[in-house]
């Protein structure tokens, strides 16, 4: 069989993914770079049990596609801890057991919208405002 110059370009698997979302993100990056590609096995009824989602590209585009996908993976660096400008306020403590496992009901603030203020006014009891989850004490916030 003679080979002519119009023979089809071979298609190869560039990568495989456990989840469909990661596969679509990679495909979108290649589409944005102008590299033709497609996914297979993306509508798996039983998830990864039936195999991974595969991303295909043309053989001549493999190097460019790998460069596009790997350029997006920036190395992660630990950020130095920020120095707080002011010391954090002391955590609210239970007056009985002195634990900090305390929650207080939201009181209306000037920045709240009308519906939040109305809901808090209609549904919130006057007293007590705070509850300790350790000892169960209900108390008012000072």
How are the elements arranged and paired?
Elements: E1 11-17, H1 20-32, E2 37-40, E3 53-58, H2 62-71, E4 102-104, H3 114-123, E5 130-132, E6 138-139
Antiparallel strand pairs: 1-3, 2-3, 4-5, 5-6
Attribute tags:
single chain; 142 residues; alpha+beta; three-stranded antiparallel sheet; 3 helices; 23% helix
Order of helices and strands: EHEEHEHEE
Share of helical residues: 10-25%
| Major sheet size, sense and barrel closure | 3 strands, antiparallel
- Secondary structural class: alpha+beta
| Measured distance between first and last alpha carbons | 92 Å
Shape: elongated
Rg, Cα atoms, Å: 29 Å
* Poorly predicted spans: none
Strand order of the largest sheet: 1-3-2
Q: Percent of residues in beta strands?
A: 15-25%
Number of helices: 3
For the secondary structure, the number of strands is 6
Quaternary arrangement of the chains shown?
single chain
Rounded average pLDDT: 79
Outline the structure in words:
Helices cover 23% and strands 18% of the residues. The protein has three helices and six strands; from the N terminus they run βαββαβαββ. It has helices spanning 20-32, 62-71, 114-123, and strands spanning 11-17, 37-40, 53-58, 102-104, 130-132, 138-139. A hairpin with a 5-residue loop joins strand 5 (130-132) and strand 6. The strands form two sheets. A three-stranded antiparallel sheet has the order 1-3-2, covered by helices on one side. A three-stranded antiparallel sheet has the order 4-5-6, with no helix packed on it. By secondary structure, the chain is of the alpha+beta class. It is elongated and about 85 Å long.
């Amino acid at each position: 069989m003679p080979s002519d110059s119009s023979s089809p370009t071979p298609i190869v698997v560039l990568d495989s993914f456990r989840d469909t979302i990661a596969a679509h993100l990679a495909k979108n990056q290649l589409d944005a770079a102008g590299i033709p590609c497609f996914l297979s096995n993306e509508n798996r009824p039983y998830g990864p049990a039936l195999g991974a989602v595969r991303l295909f590209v043309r053989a001549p585009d493999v190097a460019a596609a790998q460069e596009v996908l790997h350029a997006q993976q920036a190395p992660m660096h630990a950020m130095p801890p920020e120095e707080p400008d002011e010391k954090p306020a002391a955590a609210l403590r239970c007056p009985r057991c002195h634990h900090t496992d305390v929650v207080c009901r939201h009181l209306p603030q000037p920045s709240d919208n009308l519906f939040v203020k109305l809901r808090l006014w209609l549904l919130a009891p006057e007293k007590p405002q705070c509850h300790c989850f350790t000892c169960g004490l209900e108390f008012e916030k000072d």
